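This week, look over our next protein:
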Amino acid sequence: MNDKRNTRVTLTLILVALLIQACSGIPQPPVTETLEPIPTQTAEPQIVDSGLCSNPLYPVKQGATWTYRSTGSLSGDFSFTDTITALREDGFTLTSQINGADFAQEWACKPEGLASLTFGNGIAGGISTSGVKMDLTSSNVQGVILPKTVSAGDLWPYSLDFEGNMEYSGTSVDTQGTASFSFNALGEESVTVPAGTFNALKIHVDLTLDMEATYFGFTAPAVFTIPTDVWYAPGVGWVKATSSGNIFGMAFNETIELQSYNIP
């Protein structure tokens, strides 16, 4: 009986470590380079038409690149770069580079908006870390991350199921679960970040993760919600995100800001 109890405790601790690393968008170890400050300026939005993928708040174009920096996360400060590495008529591949590793995320372009097809990084899940190795399959994708048009007061859902394997510090567990997002467009604000000053639409997002992990025949469940505010600038993309909360007794207050961007 004690062995079973100890195994369940061990599995719970492993799951906590996986969730902390995988769902907070935190690389491990943290990046320590210093970015050169970019003079603040009022940015002129560049409207890009990409057919079905066209979205006023997120320019989908081959080679478009955004560099961000996070402060206040559970594992310290870090930076990452998002790049659209492949563009199709009905979707695109967004690749995030963190700590020398690449993480690809597939997106679909629908008449109603843009939807991530994989539980991934940034606003679509926060799996952007070199400390956790994941082999997950997504299914039952419902809704969109960013509608074709968004106005203050709009509400919309997005969710997907996932299952597969997660590995952290040499320990591998099988996992499955559901990621559910609730979006609420709050209104326009002026936002200043190192990349410039933007008139941006503020969107509140609640991510609820309901998952379980199995290790040597024992299963540990976990359910928690991460609230996030995201600012999208027309013709630029998301320029800032803030989140705060408490996961398994570990408090965090994270801010991610756009450092620079290039839209060909």
Q: What stands out?
A: The longest strand covers residues 171-193. DSSP finds one helix and 13 strands in the chain.
